[in-house]
Amino acid sequence: QVQLVESGGGLVQAGGSLRLSCAASGRTFSSYTMGWFRQAPGKEREAVAAAHRSGSTAYYLDSVKGRFTISRDNAKNTVYLQMNSLKPEDAAVYYCAAGVGGTYYGWPSTYDYWGQGTQVTVSS
Fold this sequence. Notes:
The protein is mostly beta strands. Helices cover about 0% and strands about 50% of the residues.
């Protein structure tokens, strides 16, 4: 049983930055694949970024490469998403997810636990 709680969302102007945080309750956090997903109205949920259990591999959606960075602090059971140079099309509800095993970065159905989401709004 793992609980995930996101924070850090809010309103930002285009070109600005936000850092999202996801705190996990599981004591085997270091063994999880961690991912960030987002969903905008009328669009399907998409993978934004993901970090392998080892922390040595990261996945990024093409449209956020060079702007977003995923990182994790296993000692704090926390994963972060640093978002720079935000664009209006980045506006969405952002979700943190954890995969215990057999997890594929971009496939929501392969993740086992989900947070409730945090809203990111970007004004132009």
